[in-house]
Amino acid sequence: MTGSDPIAAMPDRGVRIQGMLRLLLAAFLVAVLVTEPPDHHRLLCWVIVIAYVLWSVLTAAVQRRGLGLMPYTWLALSVDVITLTGLSLVADASADTTWTAYTLLNGLFVVPLLAATQLSPLVCALATAPTVVAYLVSGLLIRPMDEEPISYVVLAAVLLAVVGLACVLLSALQRSRVLTITRLLEERSQLVEDMVQIEQREQRNLAETLHDGALQYVLAARQEVEPALGGDAESLERVEFALAETTRLLRSTMSQLHPVALESAGLLPVLEDVADSTRSRGRLSVDVETQDWDESTRTAVDELLLVTVRELLTNVVKHAAAHKVVVQLARTDGVARLRVIDDGRGLGGVDLDARLRNGHLGLASRRIRVEAAGGWMRLRDAEPHGTVAEVEVPLA
User: Fold this and answer.
1) Tens digit of each residue's pLDDT (9 = 90 or more) over 126-155
2) CATH 3.30.565.10: does it fit domain 284-394?
3) Domain extents in the chain
4) Rounded-to-integer distance, Cα 325 and Cα 345, Å
5) Beta bridge partners of 338
6) What is d(CA 224, CA 227) in angstroms, rounded to the nearest whole number?
């Protein structure tokens, strides 16, 4: 629904509610003629009421089929006002003997409620204004000179205006809620889509890690198996080396993926595994430097720092064409400071918000997670070339 009016895009529930209210109003008119029949023009009043009942049933049937009457909202509301006003004026001839005209006129109080179902404050306000005018004019015309004071009619019209204003405010409130719910649904859908893309991206990274690391050693060992079985000592050593490296890489990958490894071993050993994996994938040197951080250190942001380092190193391998990377991790004054410096072609000046809008979720999503933890993340050019990625996040 992005780029369109969510109110118009929603099912016509408001129109259906309006149809139900209109049926109740029609029942009210029938009840008035049955209990307070006018002495004059009774047949004409019944003709008007029966026509209105048929109109109400027809509109309700159309709405129940889901066709809606949104384009004809003004027509429907106009029919309501004209019917009630006309009935009141026709019954006015019996005003000296019956209360039919006054009772019918009070049905105009339902019109603002009918308009409020459209979830449009403007429609509600524009429907309420002529309704109040019709009530005031009709009330003055049917008022018996010796019984009904003008102040009563005016005060009743003011009360109708107050009811209309309340309906306008209610319509605005309901519209705001609908728009908020729509926005939250759109954000939820976008988050689900982003999570799926991130999961797919992590799976690709894992596949690349296994392919470029452990799988290559397994394939190399397979080629050396036959000579080793023939007694070639060097082939046997190469098989042993390949299997040892495969074991090391698989353990490294498992320690990066499994949170238990992070909790039991701490951030530094797992960070060293990430550095080893990056060295084997990118054919570059990766140094890890720490300050006030040892293997016994445990913080609430260890996982966040780990996934951020992994993302930054993955971007270096894929995009930087670097030969050397330095990962610096420090802890000072309750704050963790992370820097990843490479000597590649440079990524400084990257607009993370623009990358997120264009579907590049990696760095931008990490920046969002860091900011959600109360920290910040930025990229800048290194001297003489390369990129410096800086992250700062509270340890609490």
Assistant:
1) 888 888 988 888 888 876 544 667 877 888
2) yes
3) 6-187, 284-394
4) 12
5) 329, 391
6) 6
